Structure formats: C-alpha cells, structure tokens
Amino acid sequence: MGTVRPSSNRTFTQSVTLCGRRGTAEGLSRPGHDVGATTLVVVSTAVTEPTAGSRTYQVRTFGCQMNVHDSERLSGLLEEAGYRAAGEGGPADVVVFNTCAVRENADNKLYGNLGHLASVKAQHPGMQIAVGGCLAQKDRGEIVRRAPWVDVVFGTHNVGSLPTLLERARHNAQAQVEILDALEVFPSSLPAKRDSHYAGWVSISVGCNNTCTFCIVPSLRGREADRRPGDVLAEVQMLVADGVLEVTLLGQNVNSYGVQFGDRQAFGKLLRACGEIGGLERVRFTSPHPKDFTPDVIEAMAQTPNVCHQLHMPLQSGSDRVLKAMRRSYRSARYLSILAEVRAAMPDAAITTDIIVGFPGETDDDFEQTLDVVRESRFAGAFTFQYSPRPGTPAATLPGQIPPGVVAERFGRLAEVVTASTLAENQRQVGRTVELLVSAGEGRKDQASGRLTGRARDGRLVHFAPRPATPGVVDRSIRPGDVVSVAVTRAAPHHLVADDGVLTHRRTRAGDRSEEGTPLLTPGVGLGMPSLGRPARRAEPVAACG
Ligand code: SF4
Predict the structure, then answer these.
(1) In this structure, which residue's CA is closest to atom 1 in ligand 1?
(2) Tell me, what's the pLDDT at 7?
(3) What is the count of structural domains for the chain?
C-alpha cells in the first residue's frame, strides 16, 4: 500500500497513496510509479484546486492545555501560509485534528471523527485532513493505514511542518506522514493565532523527565527541554504589549524548569521576573509537581504581586503504596506539608488537583487514604479520573487491574467528598469582593441567565449580573477582557454567583480588541534549543516523498 522512506534515526517519513481520489477527465494524470510492491496511479489535483490563499481551515483540539496552545500555533502557521479560518457555513478546506493520547478511548474517538469526515471529504473535492498531536506521534503510519483518506500526519515535535506537508500532499496527491523522535524547534518559535485577547499561554518547557507509570506523555513528548528565560520573558512582554493582561506559564512539570541549563531555582526567578513586567496583571502556571515544589517558589508566589494565589497541584493518590507504584516519588505527608506551607504564605490560595481512582493494585484501604487526604486538603476543585489502561504505559500491564465496577463505585464516592470540599471552600467566598477578568465563552448559561462570567484572581469561575451596583459604575458595555469587581452572593460546588451588581468596571485595551473582534496574531519568539545554541529558524521543509 505504501512505502516507508529511508529515514534517519530521528525521523519517520512515509508516503502513501491517497485513497478516495479518482482520476477525472479534467485531472492531470501522473504516470504510474512503483511504490514498494504497489504500483500507484495517482491524479494531481494541484492545478484545479484553490491555492492556500483562498483555502479555509479548522483546527479541532483534544486534550490538555499543551494541545490548546499548540493549536494556536497551528492556526498561526496556517494563517501565515495564507489560509483563513472557516466560518459556520460549510466544511473547511483543511481540517486539522490536534489529538490526545492520554484520554480514555482517544483512538476510538479519533477514528470515529475521521470516519465521519470521510463522507464529507468525498463530497468536497480538494478537502484535506491532517492529524497531529500525541496520538499521531504514537500511531504514526497506522493512521493512514486505518483511515487512508487522511492527507497529512505530523507529530508533537514538528508542528511547524504542517503547511509544508499539506502543500506537498496536494502537489504530489499523496499522503504525507512525518514524525520526528526529538524536538528540533520549540513550538513557541512559530507564529500563533491566539484564542484570547486578554489571556495568553506561554510555554516554558516541553517534555517531561519523569516516569509516572500511568502516563504516556514522556514517550510522546520526549525529555524536558527548557526555553531560555529571556525567550519566555520576551514572549510575555510581547503579549502584554498587545494588551494581554494574564499569562499562564505552561510546562509538564514547571518546577523542574531550569534542569536543562543548570539552575534549579529558575522557576521562582522566572515568576519574580514576570513581576517586573508593567501591565501584566495576572501570572498563573501549570502544572507543578509535588516532587520538585520548593520553598523558593512559594516565596516567589507570595512576594510577587501579579502572581495569582492559585495552585493546581496533582495529588493522583493519597496512598503512599499507590504513589510508589505510580512512580511518584513524594508521599502523602509531603504533599500535605506543601499545602500547609502554601497556605501559611498565602492564606487565600485556591488549590486544585488531579486524582486517579482505581490504579492497579489499589485496595479499599488505599482508596480510603485518598479520601482522607482529599478531606484534609480542602481543595477548591479537582479533576478526577477513573483509571483505565493506556497501551504503551508501564501500568497497563501491571497485575491487580481493578474491575470497572469497583473503579466506578470508588469514583462516585470520591466525587461526593470532592464536591463537599469544593462547596465548603466556595462558601467561604460568599460576601467577599473579588476582582474578575471578564471572560468569553466560559458561562454556558449566561445568555439565559442574563449574567456575564469572569475569573477571580484565584482562578474561581464567577457568574455575575452585569448591571451597576451603584449608578455610573458601568457607563458602557462590559466586554471580555475588561476588569470588574463584584461581591459574591452565592456559592455552588464549581462556581460562584455575584447577583448584586458590579462595584467597579475598568475598560481595557484587551476589551477594546475583543470588541473589535480582530484576531490576535503573534510572531514566534525564540532562538531554538538552549542546549544546542542554534539560531532561530522555521521548520525545514520535509524530505520529499513520492
Ligand atoms: S510528571 Fe508524570 S504525569 Fe506529568 S507529564 Fe510527567 S510523567 Fe506524565
């Protein structure tokens, strides 16, 4: 069916026929050529299809914040290449799936989506489908074998190749598969089309040096690579110059930031440096790791006024035996002592977490220990997951897999304890005045309720009545990106309500830009990989196929 091209030990490149493309009277036939054992007769559509300049695109994102931010880069790359975002009217000319291999049934969902698009593509000649992200990195050429109507497959290390691969697939009328085994260019050095005018993601590292047994990330994203602090700060400054008020520093393990350039306190220093950037009102980060969370970071958080008192600290399990089996090197006592240190320095800190239920070998007693830690931790929120084996992870083959019924029962009990905790923590907010950065699209019932929604400095979601509490406070409309203050009137487990009106309203440049509706396009920032000291460059064109 296809052929795997000779490749270096770092690159997997494959060229296969595009199924579903038939020769037409108008098309230009290319001579048949031998590919492996199969003779291909393919038809070039290049001369009859529109160029990138008039083609539309849509990026569909699955998974974590890393993927959300990578999708901003993918959109930026496509815009720079001349594509434009598809409207509601019809199918896009290019549909890009940015996939996740962490979530349960990720592959079933992807192939289900691809199956649906096969018929859409059959009715829209020239349409292209690209698949990138973690699942593409994992499944490689398998994707075009299972879904031969896919045009491009690219991995987590070469998002910058997408426009080139699309162009080559169109020109050669052959699917292009390119997977690199190591990062060569930070995605941050690529242009981005930002989802928000008021809040921006800034990647500080990619990859992870840990080996949690349930996690596929290290094998798909590779070892940790840290960006230069100067590059990170330059990107933050660029966003602020564009009116952005809030940045979230992104890494699989932000607390090990600096390991690559020999400064174990680099993350705390980075937070303090963000505090020096005028106009930057809020700094957040995700995710920290209890193993590497050090007092200097707590001090930096407490002493840097624009760093938000919000901490997402993954617990995963409250049982030391299970943590050991997960290869998470902290223990529950250490975890709780970190939370105590954080609350001693920042009594108003909102702490959220991730918890996995039903890890292989988890006993009732282990699970009860998790419930105990959850009760003691006073979480403001928690993402809870039912363990299910992920192919390719060490835990998938561990003995003692827990029956799904037991996992579901424990999950339900955990949800009750988490909900009680988050509701109690939220109820402590009632009567307090909070500053909100007004958000777009976060309040699903806003239209029906007549409320707007914003995030408090501690990350809590607050739905508020946009009318003025006192005359004259709101002179014109409140836009996403504006800043308001409100008094909390009611608490629910996952949000707060402020129905007594707006106490203050500050119009911002981010609000102006949201109102204008022009997308925020930012250039790439970075000089490449610090360990290699290479000059800045865009992704090189991939090796020719076909
Ligand atoms: S710290 Fe553990 S869970 Fe997080 S990305 Fe690394 S290996 Fe995965």
Answers:
(1) 210
(2) 31
(3) 4
Instruction: Strand 174-180: give its sheet, edge to edge.
Output: 2-4, 11-17, 174-180, 152-154, 128-133, 94-99, 56-61, 84-85
Compute the distance between CA of residue 380 and CA of residue 457 in angstroms, rounded to an integer. Answer: 13
Residues 113 and 74 in one domain: yes
Say if residue 166 is in the same domain as residue 221.
Answer: no
User: CATH code at 75?
Assistant: 3.40.50.12160
Phi-psi region of 437 (alpha: psi -120 to 50; beta: other; left: phi over 0): beta
534 falls within a domain: no
Q: How far is the CA of 221 from the centre of ligand 1 (A)?
A: 10
DSSP state of 468: B
> What is the Cα–Cα distance from 173 to 7, expressed in whole angstroms?
21
User: Among the atoms of ligand 1, which is closest to the Cα of residue 209?
Assistant: 6
Q: Of all atoms in ligand 1, which is nearest to the CA of residue 221?
A: 5
**Domain CATH for 281:** 3.30.750.210
- The atom number, within ligand 1, closest to the CA of 211 reads 7
Ligand 1 mean position to 208 CA, how many Å?
6
CATH number at residue 397: 3.30.750.200
Closest residue by Cα to residue 185 from 530, 482, 484:
530
This prediction's pTM: 0.85
In this structure, are 27 and 58 located in the same domain?
A: yes
* Most ligand 1 atoms within 8 A of CB, residue of 102, 103, 156, 252 to mutate: 252
Q: Give the pLDDT of residue 546.
A: 27
Do 214 and 321 lie in one domain? The reply is no
How do residues 12-47 score in pLDDT, each as one tens digit? 444 443 333 322 222 222 222 222 222 222 222 333
CA-closest residue to ligand 1 atom 8: 215
Residue 489 neighbours by CB under 8 Å, 6+ apart: 430, 497, 498, 499, 500
Same domain, 84 and 173: yes
Q: What is the mean pLDDT of each run of 10 residues along the chain (546 residues)?
A: 32 42 26 26 34 84 90 96 88 95 80 94 96 92 94 94 96 95 84 96 95 91 93 97 97 95 96 98 96 96 98 98 97 98 98 97 98 98 93 92 96 98 98 98 88 97 93 85 98 97 96 93 70 30 26
In the reported structure, the alpha carbon of residue 484 is separated from the centroid of ligand 1 by a whole-number distance in angstroms of 36
Whether 442 and 511 map to the same domain: the answer is yes
Q: Is residue 524 part of a domain?
A: no
Minimal CA–CA distance to 30: which of 20, 11, 17?
A: 17
CA of 379 to the centre of ligand 1 (A): 21
pLDDT score of 70: 93
Domain range holding 32? 2-180
Check residue 307 and report its DSSP letter: B
Q: Is 545 a member of any domain?
A: no
Residues within 6 Å of ligand 1 by CB: 208, 210, 212, 215, 217-218, 252-253, 289
Spacing, Cα 168 to ligand 1 middle (Å): 35
Does any domain span residue 532?
no
